[in-house]
Amino acid sequence: MNSYQKKDLQYIWHPCSQMKDYEELPPIVIERGEGCYLYDVEGNKYLDCISSWWTNLFGHSNKRINKALQNQINNIEHVIFANFSNKPAIELAEKLVEITPDRLKKVYFSDNGSSAVEIALKMSFHYHQQKGVSKKTKFATITNAYHGETLGALSVGHLDLYSKIYKPLLFDTIRAEGPDCYRCKYGQNRETCNAECFEDMEKVLQDKHEELCGIIIEPMIQGAAGMRMYSPIYLKKLRIACDKYQIHFIADEIAVGFGRTGKMFACEHAGISPDLMCLSKGISAGYMPMSVVMTSDEIYEAFYGEYTELKAFLHSHTYAGNAMACAIACESLKIFEEDNVLENNKIKSQLIRELTLEKAKNCPYVGEVRQLGMVTAVELVKDKVTKEVFSWKDRVGYEIYKIALNKGLLLRPIGNVLYFLPPYVITEKDIKYMVNTTFESIYEYFRK
Ligand SMILES: *Cc1c(COP(=O)(O)O)cnc(C)c1O
Questions:
Q1: pTM above 0.90, yes or no
Q2: Out of 3.40.640.10, 3.40.50.20, 3.40.50.2000, 1.10.260.100, which CATH number does the structure's domain 67-338 have?
Q3: Class of domain 3-61+341-446
Q4: Which residue's CA is the nearest one to ligand 1's atom 5?
Q5: Euclidean distance between CA atoms 61 and 52, whole angstroms
Q6: Ligand 1 atom closest to Cα of 117?
Q7: 241-280 per-position pLDDT tens digit
Q8: Largest CA distance in the chain
Q9: Does residue 255 line the site of ligand 1, with CB under 6 A?
Q10: Where are the domains of the chain?
């Protein structure tokens, strides 16, 4: 353990960790980054296969973004966002309205994903109250959903690992059974699927729509549940049902926005527009805490009136509209346009797909390889035929993570699901290194 690690463990409580694990494998202290690589204080380098928690788009310490940030700092770093505004926030908001699906016309700024979810829930609930439909007080979600870790976000999430102990603190949510394509109950495969699994949601909405203000969903990929990918037809059906029953469609694109799925926004796969959309993670290219909630004119107008009518949405976060984060986001969107990023990513994701399928073909532990855009997941199973899973206590993912780390890869498996979610600047050479080394690590684990 080096001296930084000793001090780190003396003073820091890390997120999403059992701190005891660090006795064996202390935190890796990163000194600098360049492109897809991270360099630690001991001079080791790691290929960041997960874009540092799904945030980084154009590499670490990107020259172009650094420059935009420097320019911004020399003007204004941050300014109060109530009654005041700043140029990058205005530029960004205009751009976001232009590139997001058509119903989304107003931008509400915040500073992290969970708080964007809280804002979307509050806005949706409050909207119906404004409209005098006071019975609409609940949200619907699907099984295996993840929307963040604050109490409202946990209430609409459905991963016991994160929420079970807090149940007494959470509000009541109506849950429909979501898609499960790898283990499809309807005997469909991804080609024949017509989102038959929407059946349960349809029933829930039919029965409960009078109580429902909104439904929140991760479009196309349920990330934290293990990169579970499902059909856009499900989203199309959901859009139709939400219109029919006057329920807000809240798209949580925090993980999938900004090109991750191959389209700028995941809702585009289904050709639908949500009523509210949460964006974070990639929005600031992995540089700064930042999020937005995009809403429709209809929702915005329900809050518009004289001060004395008490209609306003009195929610705030201190760092909302931070000028540095907004300047970075603007620069990031320029890179998308000027470097033809989505087109170029197609070639990269194709290569990741081919190499992964090739390696997975003869591997007895790979149940499924699935991919959408720049997200590729490898689900490991005990038995390919029965699709039986490993016990979570075996920590298969964590063990493989440790092996891969020694080989210079930063993976972060979710249970028994390994995935590649690299920065968009990853090269062909690094793609090969990433896929080959991951499979070497898988084999090494199972040889033990
Ligand atoms: C990461 C994530 C969140 C929470 O964002 P934080 O910034 O970690 O609070 C919410 N929803 C989805 C889909 C996410 O992936």
A1: yes
A2: 3.40.640.10
A3: alpha beta
A4: 113
A5: 13
A6: 10
A7: 999 999 999 999 999 999 999 999 999 999 999 999 999 9
A8: 70
A9: yes
A10: 3-61+341-446, 67-338
